[in-house]
C-alpha cells in the first residue's frame, strides 16, 4: 500500500513540475493576423550599439538586418526573410513563425527544402508596440555579463 501511495505522489510531482515550452503553447491569432504581410526592418537599436556588435540570429551583425525584407504569412505560419544590405553578405531563407499566448514571436530559420519539425533551434523574441503599420521584436542579449534589449523595428511595406 505504501508503495502505491509513494508512486502516486511521485507521479503527481513529476507532472506538476513539468515546464511549459514556448513552442508548445497556443497561438495568439489576433497578434499573428496583424503581422501578416510584407515588412522591412527600419532600425536595430540597443544600448552601446555605436561601440559593440551583436550577432543576430547567428547569421550576421545586427546592423546587416536594417533594410532586410520579411514576408509573414499568418494562416500557415510560414514566410521568408532576406538580408539585402550592400555592406553585408546577402542571405535569404524560408522561415516558420508564430506568436504564442505570452506575446512571444517564435522564429525558425530554415534551409531550402527543410521541414520546420526537423529544426531543433529557434529564437524567441517579445512583440512590442504593435500597430497596423509597425511593430517591434525585442531580443535579449548579453554584453559584459549584463542583459540588454536588442530592438528590431519593423515597418509595413505598401
From TrEMBL:
Keywords: Signal. The keyword Signal applies. It comes from the Bacteria. Residues 1-21 form the signal peptide. It comes from Flavobacterium glaciei. This is Lipocalin-like protein.
Amino acid at each position: 500500500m505504501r508503495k502505491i501511495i509513494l508512486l502516486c505522489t511521485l507521479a503527481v510531482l513529476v507532472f506538476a513540475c513539468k515546464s511549459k515550452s514556448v513552442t508548445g503553447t497556443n497561438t495568439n491569432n489576433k497578434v499573428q493576423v496583424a503581422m501578416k504581410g510584407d515588412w522591412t526592418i527600419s532600425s536595430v537599436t540597443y544600448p552601446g550599439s555605436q561601440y559593440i556588435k551583436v550577432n543576430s540570429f547567428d547569421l550576421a551583425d545586427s546592423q546587416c538586418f536594417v533594410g532586410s525584407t520579411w514576408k509573414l504569412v499568418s494562416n500557415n505560419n510560414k514566410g521568408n526573410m532576406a538580408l539585402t544590405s550592400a555592406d553585408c553578405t546577402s542571405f535569404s531563407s524560408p522561415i516558420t513563425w508564430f506568436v504564442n499566448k505570452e506575446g512571444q514571436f517564435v522564429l525558425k530559420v530554415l534551409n531550402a527544402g527543410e521541414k520546420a519539425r526537423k529544426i531543433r533551434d529557434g529564437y524567441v523574441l517579445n512583440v512590442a508596440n504593435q500597430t497596423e503599420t509597425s511593430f517591434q521584436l525585442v531580443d535579449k542579449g548579453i554584453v559584459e555579463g549584463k542583459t540588454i534589449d536588442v530592438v528590431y523595428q519593423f515597418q509595413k511595406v505598401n
